[in-house]
Amino acid sequence: MTEEMQSILGNLQQELRRGAIVLCVLSLLDKPRYGYALLERLEKSGMSVEPGTLYPLLRRLEKQGLLKSEWETSGMRPRKYYVMSEGGREAYHLLYRDWTEMQSTINDMIQEGEPHEA
Amino acid sequence: MRHDEKQANDLIHRYVYQVTKRLPEAQRADIEAELRGLIDDMLTARGSDPTQDDVIEVLRELGRPAELAAKYSDRKRYLIGPEYFDLYLLIVKIVLAATAFGMALALIIGYTTKPPATIPGAVANFFASIISALFQAFAWVTGIFALIERWTKGSPAKTMPWNPVDLPPVPTEKATIKRSEPIVGIVFTVLFLVLLNAAPQLFSAYITVNGVLHMAPVFDFTVYYRLLPLIDVMICVGIAKELLRLIVGRYTLSLSLVLVALNVVAMIMFICLFGPSSGVWNPNFMTQIGTEWSLSASAANLWSLVPKILVGLCIFGNVVDSIQVIVRGARSTSAAG
Predict the structure, then answer these.
(1) Is the residue at B82 inside a domain?
(2) Which CATH number characterizes residue A70's domain?
């Protein structure tokens, strides 16, 4: 693969992941977690996200009202815990429904086009 | 060991500062605390006793401070958005070209009428003047577009639902404003603006007596420089007119009405600034020429006619232009309806 093609592919993969990451983050913030714990949890599931992407994303989702946050200062070091708000839960269920629908639609579409590939 | 730890802490401190200084004041403390926590967690994951190399790797993973700060800030990160950018580029090119040409012209004529002391000095002065004028022109155009960008951000035209039925009709041949028309208009107006600001002494009568060049300026410069800001405003009204024609691109009744209104504004300003009651004209113009040409005293009366004639021409030109604009606007509207 040429270098140019690789960078194009990189961009496409990034775009494909961008929306999915929000869904993953919301699904994990059913209970309160702090940024780094979320990062590790995502990585464990094979959905690794760069910290420089996740932390700003958490703040944005909080500003949009999908998450709420609280500083936990009783531990060894202060940590900011995020959890889904009521509105966030609602949005998450709608997004999840969209995701499953899109998944089956895309799978069907790809299988239809399969024969000449196989 | 302790020295190493101190250096590592210093690096983290420097990194966090570079990120937070780019963020809005209100968010700084919170983001700083969270970012420090993240770096701590990342270091802990690498072992209980992080070295400076660990810190370097962690910071590298977080990326350049400016890029990280950019991800945190969701502010609009451009001065002139995609909607106006093409027009902005076009106007910048036109204005820069006209300014460079106008300045070069003004300077060259200036040198021929008043020869410079040294050639190298003149050359240096020539380029320095042109470059500083170009920077000014660029700054003005950019500033104006940045303001337009901000003013039109939440305007009703952008937030109202868009209806395809409201699409303007494809203009007929007659209603289309050729792009070249307003562009030429802008070029000449900017040229005029540059000359009036950089070299008003060009507007003089040039008389050679026994091979010596004498200049009799048309303007009384003490009054002229006092009025210059208003003169500039008047010329900018003219530029605004051409810009509108360029942006709208076709004659409509509403465009015509705005253009006529601007005509009236420019005309009133012209009458006040250059009319018979204005002190901008050099009262000694005729005596200055008269001494060279030995004109009769009654010639002075001739000079007092000049502002009246100019006002007459200005009114005539504006009325003709306004009628033309209205006719074209009305015609395009009736053709569309």
Answers:
(1) no
(2) 1.10.10.10
- Total number of domains in chain B: 2
| Contact of B141 with B92, CB cutoff 8 Å | yes
Is A78 part of the contact surface with chain B (CB cutoff 8 Å)?
Answer: yes
What domain range includes position A73?
22-108
Number of neighbouring beta carbons within 10 Å of residue A74: 6
User: Which tokens in the block code for residue B34?
Assistant: 């969270």
Which helix (H) or strand (E) segment holds residue A112: the answer is helix A86-112
Q: How far is B73 from chain A (nearest CA, A)?
A: 8
3-state secondary structure of B216: strand
- The reply to whether B43 and B175 lie within a common domain is no
Per-residue pLDDT of chain A (118 residues), as tens digits, is: 788 999 999 999 888 888 899 999 999 999 999 999 999 999 999 888 999 999 999 999 999 999 999 998 887 888 999 999 999 999 999 999 999 999 999 999 998 876 655 4
Strand partners, A71: A80
DSSP for residue B201:
G
Domain identity same for B173 and B49: no
Q: Which long-range contacts (CB under 8 A, 24 or more apart) does B144-152 make?
A: B145/B79, B145/B80, B145/B84, B145/B88, B145/B91, B146/B79, B146/B80, B148/B84, B149/B79, B149/B80, B149/B81, B149/B83, B149/B84
User: How many folded domains does chain A comprise?
Assistant: 1
Which residue, among A36, A62, A70, would best test binding to B if mutated, counting the most B CBs under 10 Å from its CB? Answer: A36
Is the reported ipTM for this assembly greater than 0.90?
no
How many interface pairs between A and B have CB atoms less than 8 angstroms apart? 45
Establish if A49 belongs to a structural domain: yes
Find the length of chain B.
Answer: 337
For residue B233, the tally of other CB atoms under 10 A from its CB is: 13
- Judge whether A89 is closer than 8 Å to chain B, CB to CB: no
Taking only Cα atoms into account, the Rg of chain B, rounded to an integer number of angstroms, comes to 31
Its domain, for residue B29, covers 2-72
